[in-house]
Amino acid sequence: MRRFRGHRRAAEQDTEINLSPLIDMVFILLIFFIVTTVFVKESGISVNRPKAASAVELERQSILIGVDAGGRVFYSGQEIGVQGVRAVVRRLIEREEMPVIIQADKAVPTGVTARVMDEAKLGGASAINLATLAPNAS
């Protein structure tokens, strides 16, 4: 009878759950999701965009430059001015070809928007778009 008890203890000690493969799988999934996530840098300001009948959805991987009603130019929440557009576009396009989207307030003078578009073109942007709202959007 004493032997039987000893055998039972040995069986209980051998039954443990190995969590290492589960932890490895969780880390692999975490790395996969981090690598495949698309990070979009917003312009950092809220603008009152004009409406346009030809408005279409553009790529998520793009350079967003904001121009507020006062004509100040922003990228990623920081004011860069019209002169900073060329350097920002050149630096970002070095890594990967991306379109530039200008989010200009509808109160911005056309001359400021044209200068921002010109600086983006001189920075190497092949596609420059103006962000608008669809006619049925509020």
Overview in brief:
This protein is 42% helix and 13% strand. It is an alpha/beta fold and 138 residues long. The termini are far apart.
Describe the secondary structure blueprint for this structure.
Elements: H1 2-14, H2 20-36, E1 63-67, E2 73-75, E3 78-79, H3 81-95, E4 100-104, H4 110-122, E5 128-130
Parallel strand pairs: 1-4, 4-5
Antiparallel strand pairs: 1-2, 2-3
Please describe what this structure looks like.
This protein has four helices and five strands, in the order ααβββαβαβ. A five-stranded mixed sheet has the order 3-2-1-4-5, covered by helices on one side. α3 packs parallel to α4 (110-122). It has helices spanning 2-14, 20-36, 81-95, 110-122; strands spanning 63-67, 73-75, 78-79, 100-104, 128-130. By secondary structure, it is of the alpha/beta class. The radius of gyration is 27 Å and the shape is elongated. The chain has two domains: 2-36; 40-138, Rossmann fold, CATH 3.40.50. β1 (63-67) and β2 form a beta hairpin. It starts with a helix and ends in an 8-residue tail after the last strand. The mean pLDDT is 77.
Please name the defining characteristics of this protein:
2 domains, 138 residues, 42% helix, alpha/beta, 5-stranded mixed beta sheet, 4 helices, Rossmann fold
